[in-house]
Amino acid sequence: MTWEIIVKIILFGIALAMDAFAVSITDGLIYSDINKKKIFFIAATFGIMQALMPVIGFFAVEIVSLIVGNSGSVQAIKVFTIVVTWLSFGLLILIGLKMLIEGIIEIRKPVEEKKPKLFSIKEVLIMGVATAIDALAVGVSLHAGLSTSVTIWLHVSIICVITFAISLAGLFLGKQILKLLKGKTEITVIIGGCILILLAVWVIVSHYAGL
Prior knowledge:
- The chain has helices at residues 3-30, 36-107, 121-132, 136-146, 152-180, 185-208.
- The protein has 211 residues and is mostly helical.
- It has one domain.
- α1 packs antiparallel against α6 (185-208) and α2 crosses α5 (152-180).
């Protein structure tokens, strides 16, 4: 393993963390009861998910190659990446639309009936999967020459740490934006929903445009 490979893994980690960064800003915006403990939980969730998915993708290729051989695995990998892309798109769209609708409903309520959006572990976990699922395809790329069944663990650890740090930055940024909006969580939920919908569209565009 060379320094060139480490640099490539770091760049992979930064690229993967951009989705988590966008969603972290969203979480910092929408949860009115967010605190340091919850911020670290969200960042850790995103970091672990971004590390777990490449491992799954890497060993999925190993298993497919053993079953159908290297030539057959090429077509299987293509199908795999397409399914992963559309699954990520679907999850992000669903969460984004849910937030958008919630925000619009909330903004139309009288002031005395408005309720702030509270932290949800379930929602955070779903977001973690939605933002990380495209990293399954990264596991396929790592299998193509950058990683081995031994070095993959070091490589995903680097990705995990990078995602954790960038997610922390996104969460604190979102929290500061929430303060600037003076706690108008119905507006921040709408903004968060729009961010996730745009991110879903980007997942599809980046896949088919080869970005």
